[in-house]
Design goal:
This protein has helices at about 5-30, 30-45, 45-55, 60-75, 80-95, 100-120, 125-145, 150-155, 165-180, 195-200, 200-225, 230-240, 240-250, 265-280, 285-315, 325. The chain is mainly alpha-helical.
């Protein structure tokens, strides 16, 4: 009853826009090389590719994450009503598309308030007033849009609770890394798992895992000491996903790996910042630029090899038999 291309177009447009928004965010906070790598990483990531083509709201969620961070940085730079309004509207859209985003917004507002306090200790009245007005307006708008559905959300959160196990955390990290589970509970026929990649090339797999971990650590350090509003950005990169999983465990509610997809831009930010910081010690700008581009291209090539089986499976095999239900 509908043109499938037209129905998929919004998710596709949001997914493409998310790549540009992530690059804009990192450029905005003073990490231009990281911006280029993070955008390319997101563009080839199997999880991003999957939800940029599926008729769901996850690509819009991926767009909202860098826009939320960018609006927070903009408010700190110049706290005009226009920028506060943008911050409030992004929160409404994020919560509208993903009610589990309460954890994201809790961290966002706490980090923003801390940064406002740190910068305006003697003159907090005006920024605090604008934050309160923005938050109240956003809450009212959200209730007008979604109020009738809140009881459904409460019922749905209690349906089929899964809890947070070590296996679940492992599969979330696996999805964030390469877009597939390490081992599916109910494996789709012939669908690629990260465990298959690990078994086929164990040495390269361990090397890639170690490099990824080291770059994430270096990226976190660089955000903390180098980028503008770095501590606030670091909090938004590291805390929302653990907070969401902790709240799910405490409330015994339902969660699937895809519900943590909002952390994918965070991984791209950490990797990009880590790679940009590798050669920050070089004094010659041309040498630093050449070395940074070379290492970024090498890492991107290695990632393309590692994730190729998953991207290939996305083109050939259905991962979930939901097509009739969604269309």
């Amino acid at each position: 009853f509908a043109d499938e291309r037209a129905v998929r177009l919004p998710a596709f447009a949001f997914g493409i826009a998310a790549i540009g928004a992530l690059a804009w965010l990192l450029w905005r906070v003073g990490l231009p090389w990281a911006a280029g790598f993070a955008a390319l990483f997101l563009a080839v990531h199997p999880w991003q590719l999957r939800y940029t083509s599926e008729i769901r709201g996850y690509s819009l969620l991926l767009l909202c994450m860098p826009l939320l961070l960018g609006s927070m940085v903009a408010v700190l730079h110049r706290a005009s009503w226009k920028r506060w309004t943008a911050f409030g509207l992004v929160q409404v859209v994020l919560l509208w598309v993903y009610p589990g985003g309460v954890a994201i917004l809790a961290v966002a507002n706490a980090a923003l308030l801390f940064e406002l306090w740190r910068r305006h200790r003697g003159a907090l009245r005006e920024p605090l007033t604008r934050w309160l007005v923005t938050s109240f307006g956003a809450a009212v708008l959200f209730m007008l849009l979604m109020g009738p559905n809140l009881m459904i959300f409460l019922w749905h959160s209690e349906w089929n609770p899964k809890g947070i196990s070590a296996r679940f955390v492992r599969d979330v990290l696996s999805h964030l890394w390469v877009g597939t589970a390490f081992a599916f509970r109910h494996s789709p026929e012939h669908y690629v798992e990260l465990g298959d990649v690990a078994r086929s090339a164990p040495l390269l797999f361990r090397t890639a895992l170690s490099v990824t971990g080291a770059l994430c650590l270096l990226g976190a350090i660089r955000l903390a000491v180098r980028g503008r509003a770095g501590l606030m950005l670091l909090a938004m990169v590291l805390l929302p996903a653990p907070l969401l999983m902790w709240s799910v465990e405490v409330q015994h509610s339902m969660i699937y790996e895809r519900h943590v997809i909002f952390a994918l831009p965070s991984l791209a930010i950490l990797l990009g910042a880590g790679l940009e910081g590798l050669f920050a010690w070089l004094r010659s700008p041309p040498a630093r630029a050449a070395a940074t581009v070379a290492i970024m291209l090498a890492c991107l090539g290695g990632y393309l090899w590692l994730s190729h089986p998953i991207r290939s499976a996305l083109l050939r095999l259905p991962i979930q038999p939901n097509r009739e239900a969604v269309l």
